[in-house]
Amino acid sequence: MGTNATIHVEEGPVATKVAMTMEESLQAFAVCAACFIGEQDIPYSEEFDGHDFGATHILALVGSEPVGAVRLRWFQSFAMPERISVVQRHRGRGIARQLLEQCRQLAERRGCRMLYTQAPPRDVAAWERLGWRRLDTAADEDDRGYVALARPVDPAATPEAVPTPELLTLRPEPWLDRPARPGRTEVN
Amino acid sequence: MPSTKAAMPACEPVVEIKVAASSDELMMCYALRAAVFMGEQHCPYFEEFDGNDYTGTHILMLVDGEPAGWMRVRWFHSFCKLERAVILKPYRSAGRFIDLLHFSKDLARRKGYTKAYGHVQLRNFPIFERDGFRRVDDRVFHFSDHEYYSIVCDLEPVAAPPAIDLPPLVLNRPEGRLDEPGILELSQARAPTNPHLPHVERRAH
Predict the structure, then answer these.
(1) Residue B120 in contact with partner chain A when CB distance is under 8 A
(2) What is residue A1's predicted lDDT score, i.e. its pLDDT?
(3) What gap in Å lies between CA A86 and CA A39, rounded to an integer?
(4) Can you list the positions of beta strands (E) in chain B?
(5) Contact A41 B90 (CB under 8 A)
(6) How many Å apart are CA B107 and CA A31, to the nearest integer?
(7) pLDDT per position in chain B (205 positions), as tens?
């Protein structure tokens, strides 16, 4: 007797795509929850901070299985990839790099010239290897211990070509006079 | 100077258990499951989100307002099936799990169910056994990398379970709050104007 069960494969190359449906958005949220709430004990209310419906979510898939996600927020003068997560069993195969490249390409197509993010100090070297540089601002290693980083969208530009963004715009959008939530990464 | 902290009364966390009833609350349920099953137990996404999420009832536990626990209940004809309990790591304790389980069993009782069924991982069977569950039979089966028993527990019948001869609006009440008037009873303050009727008549001509 045959089975009608849908077989979900989890093998093959890594593909990335912009989450376009409720199901794909949920997949991105699930990967994020697994990595940050499950592994790092981040409270739900910090993880789902109110920005998820004003951002673009990019999924990494192996076959049909969601294995990675990044949230990309859009500002007037830059785009901000944040909350990069890759499920444990798929770490170490360059998926975060692939997700960030997808962010860069999306930004490029929109005419955006700069990518900006905030990372914990332990991840800074990894970001620098991907062409990002620390910003020399007051937020450089701010009171939450996070480091501001940026890179030009144009791969031919030098990292020094990026201007310093306006920090106020990083705060929760409805409440620009309140402190921001920290950005995070879980990519190893 | 004496510590001001020492003078503070000990604050017990506020625990609330409820039937998830909004998109936000369902999202909290999904995040908890992803955290525990995908994050801690490395379960593939499609084995956790198995297609039955829109056919069951989701029970959500909040501790001081933060999502902390979840359980799914599915409703069959002669029994309900309790599934997949999680308590998030920072909140995890056997007591909290039992609270979640009892809420689910009580919800089932109040809907008229007298039998709760479940699949339990072998290592967790003693917790359920102490709560009145017994093995259905000797079978041991496995899925998603874990071995399970089928277990069942008799639920004490309630005096007046929901029935079709109750006042109709009682059956419209939100599940989990069947004892309180629901929003549709409040809507009875408006007269029945049958607002679609003129539209139907126009179409008929």
Answers:
(1) no
(2) 46
(3) 11
(4) 15-19, 56-63, 66-75, 80-87, 115-121, 134-135, 141-143, 146-154
(5) yes
(6) 31
(7) 444 455 566 789 999 999 999 999 999 999 999 999 999 999 999 999 999 999 999 999 999 999 999 999 999 999 999 999 999 999 999 999 999 999 999 999 999 999 999 999 999 999 999 999 999 999 999 998 899 999 999 999 999 899 999 999 999 998 888 889 999 999 999 999 888 766 666 666 5
Tokens 């959008």 appear where? Answer: A173
Measured CB to CB, residues of chain A less than 8 Å from chain B are 6, 8, 10, 26-27, 29-35, 37-39, 41, 43-45, 47-48, 64-66, 87-89
- CA–CA gap between residue A9 and residue A161 (Å, rounded): 43
Q: Which CATH superfamily is domain A14-186 in?
A: Gcn5-related N-acetyltransferase (GNAT) (3.40.630.30)
**Quick one: B151 and B171 in the same domain?**
no
Residue B31 has its nearest CB partner, among A8, A39, A48, at: A48
Query: Does the distance separating the beta carbons of A29 and B34 come in below 8 Å?
Result: yes
Domain range summary for chain A, segments of one domain joined by +: 14-186
In B, minimum Cα distance to A31 occurs at B34
Q: What is the ipTM of this complex?
A: 0.82
Domain hosting B31: range is 11-158
Residues 6+ apart with CB under 8 A from B33: A30, B48, B49, B70, B84, B86
Mean pLDDT by 10-residue block, N- to C-terminus, for chain A (188 residues)? 67 94 96 96 92 95 96 92 96 96 96 91 92 72 75 84 58 60 49
Asked if residue B5 belongs to a domain, the reply is no
Query: How many structural domains compose chain B?
Result: 2
The helix or strand, by DSSP H or E, that contains position B12, with its residue range, turns out to be: none
Q: What is the mean pLDDT of chain B?
A: 91
User: In angstroms, rounded to a whole number, what is the distance separating the alpha carbons of residues B45 and A38?
Assistant: 14
